[in-house]
Amino acid sequence: MSFLEQLKKVKEASLKLMHLKSEVKNDLLKQIAENLDKNRNRIKNENAKDLAEGEKAGLSKALMDRLLLNDKRIDAMINGVMDIVNQDDPVGVVEKGYKRPNGLKIYKVRVPIGVIGIIYESRPNVTVDAAALCLKSGNAAVLRGGKEAVNSNRILGEIIQEAIVNNGLMKETVLVIEDSERKLIYDMLKAKGYIDLIVPRGGEGLIQFVTENSLIPIVKHDKGLCHVYIDKDADIDKAVKIAFNAKVQRPGVCNAMETLLIHKDVAEVVLPKLKDEYEKAGVELRGCELTKSVIDVIPATEDDWKTEYLDLILSIKVVGCIDEAIEHINRYGSSHSEAIVTENYTVAQKFLDEVDAAAVYVNASTRFTDGAEFGLGAEIGISTQKLHCRGPMGAYDLTTTKYIIYGDGHIRK
Amino acid sequence: MSFLEQLKKVKEASLKLMHLKSEVKNDLLKQIAENLDKNRNRIKNENAKDLAEGEKAGLSKALMDRLLLNDKRIDAMINGVMDIVNQDDPVGVVEKGYKRPNGLKIYKVRVPIGVIGIIYESRPNVTVDAAALCLKSGNAAVLRGGKEAVNSNRILGEIIQEAIVNNGLMKETVLVIEDSERKLIYDMLKAKGYIDLIVPRGGEGLIQFVTENSLIPIVKHDKGLCHVYIDKDADIDKAVKIAFNAKVQRPGVCNAMETLLIHKDVAEVVLPKLKDEYEKAGVELRGCELTKSVIDVIPATEDDWKTEYLDLILSIKVVGCIDEAIEHINRYGSSHSEAIVTENYTVAQKFLDEVDAAAVYVNASTRFTDGAEFGLGAEIGISTQKLHCRGPMGAYDLTTTKYIIYGDGHIRK
Hints:
2 copies of one chain form a homodimer. The first copy, chain A, has helices at 3-17, 22-38, 40-57, 61-67, 71-86, 125-136, 150-166, 183-190, 204-213, 236-248, 264-280, 289-292, 302-305, 322-332, 345-354; strands at residues 94-99, 105-112, 115-119, 140-144, 174-177, 197-200, 226-230, 257-263, 284-287, 298-299, 313-319, 337-341, 359-364, 381-383, 391-393, 399-410. The first copy, chain A, is α/β, with parallel strands linked by helices and 413 residues long. The first copy, chain A, folds into 2 domains: 3-222 and 388-406, Aldehyde Dehydrogenase, Chain A, domain 1 (3-Layer(aba) Sandwich), CATH 3.40.605.10; 226-368, Aldehyde Dehydrogenase, Chain A, domain 2. In chain A, the strands form 4 sheets. Chain A has a 7-stranded parallel beta sheet with strand order 10-9-11-8-7-12-13. In chain A, strands 5-4-3-6 form a 4-stranded parallel beta sheet, sandwiched between helices. A 3-stranded antiparallel beta sheet of chain A has the order 1-2-16, with no helix packed on it. Chain A starts with a helix and ends with a strand. At the A-B interface, α10, α15, β13 and β16 of A face α10, α15, β13 and β16 of B.
């Protein structure tokens, strides 16, 4: 079957999936969890092939670790699916309803989007997470994982499809595809009418390729260039704790801080304390001229303000006022997560109002931007765009709306 | 100033606009309405130039009519702006708010998108509608109208900017651009980081050009291939009235019916009645084999099921059951507006559940899909895509969300 013929089947499957009851979808998800549990050896055997290939290809330790599926990680996948079972079904929720003066009853109801294409790299557990979130929200899925994980993704796809077929649905409800280079990604991006939404998760190269080639709407999961601003009225203890946490707790993720902004009036008190803490944790510090006049750091360049290090590196800038901090953030930030530390009510409200980002914090670490931390359930990623959804993207965001109108012979005058 | 430098100014203007109070935005809109009233002669003089050019270029009567701005149409523009003043401000609405177990208070709040680029054809009144809706929702706007209306659009842009500057805002808050061919459209589509959303309104050629070239998210206002299905349990009077209204009341718009589906058990009763009515109204009928066995019509081809006539032409298909009707609609429809006429409760619910469209009706004409008819206020168009918004697109849909999080020194464990 050609890829386009397969996509036609996926579209057909999506129409059957759209109006399934929550109970039926949850039973299917439970069976996927059971199948994963029963097939641990099949999974580990196939994963071993990917690991062996990765070893041969000389993949880095970090990449090899991402590839690995052991019992602990299979447990995590199973628990992930069961968490999704226990979430509310977003489909069928009535967003609003009213009666018009002419008697028409209008309801705006959440419905599945249709077919979701997800493009991701390396980690094979995404195959299970993404399939489960799509099924929960009544969508069919086309999953294109990284080529390093091709054997692992194939077996996970088979296990998911076995449960799907067992529940009387078309096996193309979840289609895991195998791609070398970007041939099938390209075909996906042109498959208007078959795929309704593309979610790319990965590095800048992938995101750019998808943005430039897609004829289908996309929700991007791009970079996070996040700031913490320590105001002159900050509680110093909170400031040090938050600035340390935002950089060090998990530096390789998109909601970690990359640039620290600090008001000139507290720079001399806060920076030496932070320097001690950061140095113990092995953080490299790069600072502006004013920072350098307080602590000994590497000089920061214009490029540093634009860089998402994803590493134990931090750029520091001393600012003269809240406006300068907000301007810097709106100019260099990636509109992901931004925090202020202050005890000043008016300054806090100003920051919340004027910073343009998916998540804006007062006196908390940027690290909380996450579906589970926000109480939204599992996430398929964090949207860095403003259209459709912004911030953690869960099952709710894999739905759209439909107007349902009850009339009684109404015609337009 | 280069176009990119102008766009930088628009972006700067949008940041100032984001957190304006509703009162301030409404005062500005009222002043725009007053300025339009005071400058009727300036508008009509500039419009006369476009009309003269149009005459020379041999524009069709319909196009010339769309171009015309007389006092009645200036009144309509003024009333449109005042209607938008009286609508609720979508900015600042809290969609949900809750406290997490760790004490973090999280609010999901509606905020402006930023800079909206709107690309439209011929009718100059769109310049005023679009600017007013963008301002109401706190967005800056880049407006690219049709080249036939260049003088009218320029003067309307000046009148809007005079009010903007008078209110202490940057004149680039609304930028009306003049474009020959599609040079500036192309530049708009590549202006990632300056424009946040592109709304194309126009023919298939324009929509395709925008879809293929845009690096910026778009909300499309594409075609409407709408159906009415008359079920075997339909009330015959309602069926005839609705099928007539959906085709004839205003055939040139996207929510008009293009194909009538009818259950075989009622075809012999309904079709002759409808044929009489349609013929009086000058509607050309094209039908399937079964239709032809009941009434005398031109044979319909496969192409007819795919065609948005926007004219007094109707294709008719007799179907054997509700499933066949739903399948036809999901296959050939453009997911815009679809209606069933039936007194059967279960069949009605099945149609509502299984038809995949922005608006699905029971016993009402498809012609109601419209911002004002739905009670949503003025619309910038009708979205035919599933992402971000679906159906009539008003001020609410020109906003996105932002998470606001209040902590007390919270760090991630």
